[in-house]
């Protein structure tokens, strides 16, 4: 649009050589002229803004890979899946499974058992579990095979091979770093 002498805006039509074209023919012709003008200025034309040596990524079969409506490796992935793949690639899977025993203890063994017993250590496939009373320790020893099956189903087979179930620990009467073996002072307890 240009401004005329009387202040009104004039609408210019297409140049004379494009006046007899319409629709897509008009667009194609204008695009060709714009490309020609760009070539005359020494610019790369028809590359979609890429550098002269750049190529679009293609798959192994030589065809272009487009992200379509289906799942694709380039799509955002859930964090859990990415973490599992990272653990597999780095060889951390056994350590992650061991940590899952502690993290998922309540969901694995159930709320009632988790209230009265907790895992304390896992070494060489032996899970140490401390119960809050000797009665609970005895009950857990009775259902030990069922607990092992639940743990294997939750975190994987072979992570926990056996359980070492202990009751509460009595206070130690030892005072200091040195100790003499034996029953201790006989005059105190008879």
What is the helix content?
Answer: 40-55%
Order of helices and strands: EEHHHHHEEHHEH
The fraction of residues assigned to DSSP E strands is 5-15%
Major sheet, described briefly? 3 strands, mixed
Number of helices: 8
Annotate the secondary structure layout:
Elements: E1 2-3, E2 9-10, H1 24-40, H2 79-90, H3 93-103, H4 105-109, H5 111-116, E3 117-123, E4 126-131, H6 134-142, H7 144-155, E5 162-166, H8 186-189
Notes on the structure:
It contains eight helices and five strands, in the order ββαααααββααβα. By secondary structure, the chain is α+β, with helices and mostly antiparallel strands. Helix content is 40%, strand content 12%. The chain has a three-stranded mixed beta sheet. The protein is rod-shaped, with a radius of gyration of 39 Å.
Relevant terms:
rod-shaped, 8 helices, 190 residues, three-stranded mixed beta sheet, alpha+beta, two-stranded antiparallel ribbon
Concise account of the structure shown:
This protein is α+β, with helices and mostly antiparallel strands.
């Amino acid at each position: 649009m240009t401004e005329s002498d009387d202040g009104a805006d004039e609408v210019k039509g297409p140049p004379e050589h494009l006046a007899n074209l319409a629709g897509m023919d008009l667009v194609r012709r204008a695009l060709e002229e714009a490309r020609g003008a760009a070539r005359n200025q020494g610019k790369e034309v028809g590359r979609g803004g890429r550098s002269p040596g750049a190529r679009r990524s293609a798959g192994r079969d030589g065809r272009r890979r487009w992200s379509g409506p289906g799942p694709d490796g380039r799509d955002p992935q859930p964090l859990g899946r990415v973490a599992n793949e990272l653990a597999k690639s780095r060889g951390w899977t056994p350590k992650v499974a061991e940590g899952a025993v502690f993290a998922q203890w309540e969901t694995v063994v159930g709320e009632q058992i988790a209230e009265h017993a907790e895992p304390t250590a896992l070494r060489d496939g032996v899970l140490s579990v401390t119960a809050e009373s000797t009665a609970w320790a005895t009950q857990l020893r009775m259902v030990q095979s069922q607990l092992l099956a639940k743990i294997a189903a939750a975190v994987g087979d072979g992570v926990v091979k056996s359980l070492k179930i202990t009751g509460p620990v009595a206070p130690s009467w030892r005072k200091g770093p040195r100790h003499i073996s034996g029953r201790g002072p006989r005059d105190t307890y008879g």
